[in-house]
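Known limitations

Structure tokens in this collection are predictions and should be treated as such. Users comparing against experimental data should check residue numbering before alignment. To illustrate the layout, the record for MobA/MobL protein domain-containing protein is reproduced below. The input appears on top and the generated tokens appear beneath it.
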Amino acid sequence: MRVIQERIIELTSWLNDFIKVLFEKYEQYKQEKREEYENKAELFNLYEYISIYYDLQGEKARKLNPYASNKKIGADLRRFSKARIYLKDNNLETIADLQERISTLQSQNKKSSQDIKAKTARIESLNKCFTYADIIKDNKQVFEEWNSKSLFKESFYNSHKDEIDKYKRARAILEKITGSSAIKIKDWQKEIQSLEDEISKLNRQSQIVKEEYESINHIKYAVKTVNDDYGIDLSIEIDKAIKRGEKPSVIAQIKKYQEQQEAYEKRKEKTKNYYRNEER
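Generated tokens:
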């Protein structure tokens, strides 16, 4: 029993020394990366960010039990591969490139939302046309009888004012909506079908953009994690980039990226505070 205890103490001591060496190597690695970043012109390279992020996740995974470790390593590898493919497919290399892509997607999303809203409103207006067509049909006989009279016209109008006014109002609204007061059921149905098809197409495009944002959000999270872990302040690095003579357009994109990230973090913190207060 004593021999076993001594063996356990020996193994524990060896394991502690091993972990200490690993930790020292990791700290050395981080310090080397800090120094590399200090002198590296391509600080904002996204391939660097996701590679370092993947390495950091690997360090975390190795501290877990074998099953959890393998599961995490597999999931991280899939995300890493997906991120690399996304960057390559969209020809993105730097944070400035990523921000430019985000701005493009935001513009596309805004336009799609506006188009969907306009087309939906048009469909609602066209659907109303069917109701106005029924009103016209129901009151057509009274209106035409009134319209054809030369004698007692005013008296007839007073007696059938509600029907005549409904007819005239329905015709006026129909013309305002379609450009014609004529009843054209098939034309309206055809236009509605066309609009619905266009909305479906726009919704599919929006879904593609949504899926693209999943890749973007992972990359942005990787950037934030690496910056936090290595103590990288984007404001300071932007100043360095300006001194290096980076293009104003590139600096502007990076600043925009930083501003959006800060706004996001503020919204997230505000949401957390709201739910904390709700729980009290």
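For this record: The two ends are 54 Å apart (CA to CA). Confidence is low (pLDDT under 50) at residues 37-41. Please report discrepancies through the issue tracker.
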